[in-house]
Structure formats: structure tokens, C-alpha cells
């Protein structure tokens, strides 16, 4: 299943606006709006997902707030923190959290059916090291995540926006990568994966150009053991489709 990343891509205009003097005069022209890399869509939810939303949201869904989050208080412990952007229906997210109980994970997703599906898995598997934020990921990163606080960032199979005219909507763009890198602690890892070769090539170019990051491989990386094969990915591999992992480390 194709994941639509939960992020509004900041543009150069946004970056300029964030650093401008608040005392300067307001621009006469209309400011450029950020480009969304996702489309909010409705979806069906089963009774299990609805029940999980009602019963588990108070504990496992963190409300968005425009201030730094106290992650130790949220999880009840101090542990390495990994943030995932756009977890879809949450199957891989739950598997990774189960495999790495000593690490805390926060998944950011805008689609309610996906949130309900992951909450259902959390309840069924008793996962205590996983939290969810249902909000735009750029705002989460800018306001809730302090610089240098993340052990890792996962971006698995974001929407490739195949058509050339839509390439600007792709999640992995230089301003976004700079923001992600700023939130990583030294040695922290940014792990991206895609099954669309042109997007993989763009990812490699953009990530390699970010001075805060260093590639851990010569080009594309082997799939790390902690990232499970999704049904979508396994089906594609059987059909001869490629999958590209990119693993970069904060220097």
C-alpha cells in the first residue's frame, strides 16, 4: 500500500519568512504557500479500528502542540527516540517497535484509518514504546522536536508523485532534509526507502548534498534487518521491481 507522507514541504519562501525581522514591513505580495506532499483522504474503518481509537487514543495519541514535547514524560522513561513520517496502516511500524523494545518510537500520520489500525496493533501486541501524533509532520518537527534530540528518522515508501509536474510534491527535498538533519543527534540515522527508481535517484542526490549527513554506504544501502518487508514490497520484488534503501548518518 502506497504511503502518503504526513508532511507539508517547506519552501525557500518559508525559510526566508522564518528568518525575517518581525519588525520589518509586511510584504505587499501574497506569500508563497507551502507545498503539501500528501492528500488528506477519507477511508473506511472497521469496528476494531474505531474501538481502538476510542479506547487507546488518550494514552497513545499525543496532541499536537506548538512547543517542545517532554518525551521522557510521554513514554515514562528516558530512551533513544525515533520518529517515523507517514506510517500508513502501521504494520511495519509496529513490527519495528516490537523488535526494538529499548527504543521509543513516535509515528506521525494524518490519516485517521491508519491511526486506528496502528492503535489496534498497539493494543493487540502490548506495545508500550510507541506513540502517535496525527498532524502535519513539518509542524511537529519544527515545534515539538528539539534540535539534536532524535536517534533516528524513518521515511518508508513515501508517495513518489510519478508525474513530472507533481515531482515538487515529493517529500524528500533540500529544506526538509536540512530540517530532519537538524533534529538528529550526532550519529543519528535518517533512513529512507522507496520502490520508485527516479525517486531513489532524487533522494540520493538530495541527501548526499546535505552537509550535516554522511552516507553509510556507497550509494544505496542494504535493507537493515530492523526494516521488515511489507506485503506491498514483497509483491513488487516477486514481480522484479526494485527497492532502494538510503541510510545516512548525522555527522
Automatic annotation (TrEMBL):
One of its GO terms (molecular function) is tRNA (guanine(46)-N7)-methyltransferase activity. The keyword DNA damage does not apply. Residues 1-29 have a biased composition (Low complexity). The keyword Transferase applies. It catalyses: guanosine(46) in tRNA + S-adenosyl-L-methionine = N(7)-methylguanosine(46) in tRNA + S-adenosyl-L-homocysteine. Keywords: Methyltransferase, S-adenosyl-L-methionine, Transferase, tRNA processing. Pathway: tRNA modification; N(7)-methylguanine-tRNA biosynthesis. Its EC number is 2.1.1.33. Residues 1-36 are annotated as: Disordered. Residues 165-170 are annotated as: Interaction with RNA. S-adenosyl-L-methionine binds at residues 84, 109, 136, 159. It is an enzyme of class 2 (transferase). SUPFAM superfamilies: S-adenosyl-L-methionine-dependent methyltransferases. InterPro entries: SAM-dependent_MTases_sf (IPR029063), tRNA_(Gua-N-7)_MeTrfase_Trmb (IPR003358), tRNA_methyltr_TrmB_bact (IPR055361). Substrate binds at residues 163, 195, 230-233. Catalyzes the formation of N(7)-methylguanine at position 46 (m7G46) in tRNA. Belongs to the class I-like SAM-binding methyltransferase superfamily. TrmB family. This is tRNA (guanine-N(7)-)-methyltransferase.
Amino acid at each position: 500500500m502506497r504511503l502518503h507522507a504526513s508532511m507539508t514541504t517547506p519552501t525557500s519562501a518559508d525559510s526566508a519568512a522564518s528568518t525575517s525581522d518581525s519588525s520589518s514591513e509586511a510584504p505587499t505580495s501574497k506569500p508563497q504557500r507551502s507545498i503539501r506532499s500528501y492528500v488528506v483522504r477519507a477511508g473506511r474503518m472497521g469496528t476494531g479500528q474505531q474501538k481502538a481509537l476510542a479506547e487507546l487514543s488518550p494514552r497513545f495519541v499525543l496532541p499536537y502542540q506548538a512547543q517542545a514535547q517532554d518525551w521522557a514524560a510521554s513514554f515514562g522513561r528516558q530512551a533513544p527516540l525515533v520518529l517515523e513520517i507517514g506510517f500508513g496502516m502501521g504494520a511495519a511500524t509496529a513490527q519495528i517497535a516490537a523488535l526494538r523494545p529499548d527504543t521509543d518510537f513516535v509515528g506521525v500520520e494524518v490519516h485517521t484509518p491508519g491511526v486506528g489500525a496502528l492503535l489496534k496493533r498497539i493494543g493487540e501486541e502490548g506495545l508500550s514504546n510507541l506513540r502517535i501524533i496525527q498532524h502535519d509532520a513539518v509542524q511537529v518537527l519544527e515545534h515539538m522536536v528539539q534540535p539534536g534530540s532524535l536517534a533516528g528518522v524513518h521515511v518508508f515508501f513515501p508517495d513518489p508523485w510519478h508525474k513530472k509536474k507533481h515531482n515538487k510534491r515529493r517529500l524528500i527535498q533540500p529544506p526538509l532534509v536540512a530540517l530532519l538533519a537538524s533534529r538528529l543527534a550526532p550519529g543519528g540515522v535518517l533512513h529512507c526507502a522507496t520502490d520508485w527508481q527516479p525517486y531513489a535517484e532524487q533522494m540520493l542526490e538530495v541527501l548526499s548534498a546535505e552537509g550535516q549527513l554522511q552516507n553509510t554506504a556507497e550509494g544505496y544501502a542494504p535493507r537493515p534487518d530492523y526494516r521488515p518487508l511489507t506485503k506491498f514490497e514483497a509483491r513488487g520484488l516477486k514481480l522484479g521491481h526494485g527497492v532502494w534503501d538510503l541510510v545516512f548518518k548525522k555527522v
